[in-house]
Amino acid sequence: MAPSTRTSTLTAAVPTQADGRMSLRAKWALGGVIGGGALAGLLATGSSALALYFARRVITPVRQRTADQEVLAVLREGGGRQVILTATPETTVEGVYGLFFDGGKGHARIGRIVSYSPADGTVLREVEAVYAGDLDTARRGWWSGALYPDPAAAGFAAEDVQIDVDGGTAPAWLVRAGGPARTWAVMVHGRGATRQEALRAVGPALELGLTSLLVSYRNDGLAPSAEDGRYGLGSTEWHDVEAAIEFALANGAEEIVLFGWSMGGAICLQTADLSPHRHLIRAMVLDAPVINWVNVLAHHAQINRIPSLVGRYGQLMLGHPVGRRLTGLAAPVDLKAMDWVARAVEVRTPTLIIHSVDDEYVPYEPSALLGERNPDMVTFETFNHARHTKEWNVDPERWENLIKAWLRPQLAPRLNPGQNR
């Protein structure tokens, strides 16, 4: 009875139209009060702490990666080295990868699988290079798709530049094309990663004649932190990419191609939608992008054994003004505005999406649905066994060829109005 009585009292207190019907403004006001009351009720339950923990975890940057990969031994083999690792779903996939150790101070490039012993739970792999640290003394680290520590290690001549953003300047790597380049590639890494992640795309970009700008953005450990110290999941970070576009335009660029990985893909989609320069964004290449945050958050609630209702409460906290105060966000995050499956027809920039079907972090289904719902603008290509954002690592030749074959016609000179096709 109490909820009904409270609603009746509230209804009686709000303005009505001449015919007795509630005005539109009143309906919105009443909805806000009821919504706030529902959330307040939630906070009184035992599930609130878990929901709040889940919401905060999503938007809080992690300053130190978890060293969840065990390094068992390093062997000398002729003039080279091999490393014995605990077998995991990542270390048992062929390809070439980065291994960070010693709290991130050490970095090695790990190559092919020499042998794999399921019974012992170990895998022996080649060590292609050690860029920093003493791998012989390493005991734990983390697996990464980032092979190289910097452009020089990847064989690229680069300039260190600073981009003016809110709160200061954000460092970026600038890799110039061999000749004058009217189109620049602005490359945006994912959540918890750095601009190292984007080095994999510089080679094909150079082959296409693109100058590459590998950016940092708020809360990634290089760029200035946001005032609230929280991720906006793309809703705020796109402003830093917009600043990178302005830098490119001020330094000779006439058009832009956006590259984005994981949350960087969500950031690129926001940029292409909201940027004042969106008409200059010629194309987007997105690797394992977040197309629908609700889907990703539900997936992570499931794999972390968080009840689905609690996971939904966590999502409500991210988007509700009351929840905003609890999570520490400066403003609510509008997850619906970043649902590009629902907004598929609004994608107006030609987009290539590359996504592995076994992605354990960002499910591929929303990427596939976006391609199905807007095939005129979105091309979707699948990989297998690459997990999250490691498609290049598994098959670099195919990854690069896909991008070059798709981008070449996108970059072809545009026809003038009335010109014969």
UniProtKB/TrEMBL annotation:
Entry-linked InterPro entries: AB_hydrolase_1, AB_hydrolase_fold
Sequence intervals crossing the membrane: 28-55
GO-annotated molecular function: catalytic activity
Pfam families registered for this protein in UniProt: Abhydrolase_1 (PF00561)
SUPFAM superfamilies from the UniProt entry: alpha/beta-Hydrolases
PANTHER family per UniProt: ALPHA/BETA HYDROLASE DOMAIN-CONTAINING PROTEIN, XAA-PRO DIPEPTIDYL-PEPTIDASE-RELATED
Protein name in UniProt: Lipase
